[in-house]
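Hi V.,

You were right to ask for the full record rather than a summary. Here it is.
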Amino acid sequence: MIKKIKVEHLTLGMFIHDFNCGWLNHPFLTSTMKIEDTQIIKKVIDYGIREIYIDTDKGYDVGEAPSEDEVKQEIQAEINRIVEPEKIDRNPVSIQEEFIKAKEIKSEAKKTIHNIMEDIRFGKQIKTENVGLVVDEMIDSIFRNQDALISLVRIKEKDEYTYLHSVSVGVLMISFGKHLGFDIATLKEVGMGAMLHDVGKMIVPQALLNKEEKLTEEELGMLKKHVEYSRMLLEQTHGLTKSAITLAAQHHERIDGTGYPLGLKGDEIDYYARVAAIVDVYDAMTSKRCYQDRFMPTEVLKKLYEWSSYHYDRNLVEQFIRCVGIYPVGSLVRLESGLIGVVVKNGEKNLLHPVVRIVYNAKKDSFIRLPFDLDLEQQSGKSGEDRIISCDSPDKFNIKPEMYM
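Predicted structure:
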């Protein structure tokens, strides 16, 4: 059985099933191992890991620890509470209308960030004028319909991750900031900071960014230096506010003090940096990278909520879930009836009941010839209400969600 325990309960003879953190947040070459050395336990604690999953069939047990299934059920219940029926803001423009402009913005943003990163490689000064113009366009698009740009920037190949991650974090930061009530001037500040938050990676050896194997401890330490390099570069850049620079300098800090580079705790971390930390991890985990496959957005939201017990601002995580929706637009979901579809619109009364464009029938193992929309807030089919039971990977069915939006 898989169980979740606190790291202080780790003992020799236990089998670690999952370190319960991102791959870059632990120094081990594998995510599963039997504890045969007390140094392993010390290293786990030193890296700021607070809770861990063990396999009791392969090692020693902890009697009162909850099972993985119990943990998942509890988290799902909490998230359902977070997104209980509430009034959802209507978008003034449909997602189909906004897609055309959003595609142009994504392309221009990617080109802008690529040019900036190349300039840094050749020792040139960062020019923020084009970043500011792109951020202005992003803000306008998000106010028209945030789902168009958010769903588009989630589409990225692993070889373009470095550039499009910066674009995605900028888009998500603006959208989340809008949800939190930031004014336009603040949205522009944090949008620019988010777009430039990883510029220091251009000073890190590029082999580390593209390495497909697990990084060694030494390599991990070198990669973490990118945050300090980003701060240094942005402090030398004209046209950025202190808030934008601080956001980039602190987005890897964690509420419990286990982050880097300064190990700041709680309110020592700038508010905008706490917002950016959530956005950064969400995009990183939902993206395909050279060393990991992407996770489904819904699963990442659950992990963020789980980790907000220690690492992230719990209130901000709850607000982020409300902002993007438990089933973000562009997600592929499986219904109780066996139908599979793409979420094309958040529910107007309840985030748990979005509008789904049905494209596949899992029971018949066949595509729907004429895709149709199912509003899960309404009665559907002869059997009454249908409901979402899980998210599915588009790769599993060779489905490209963007083609159905």
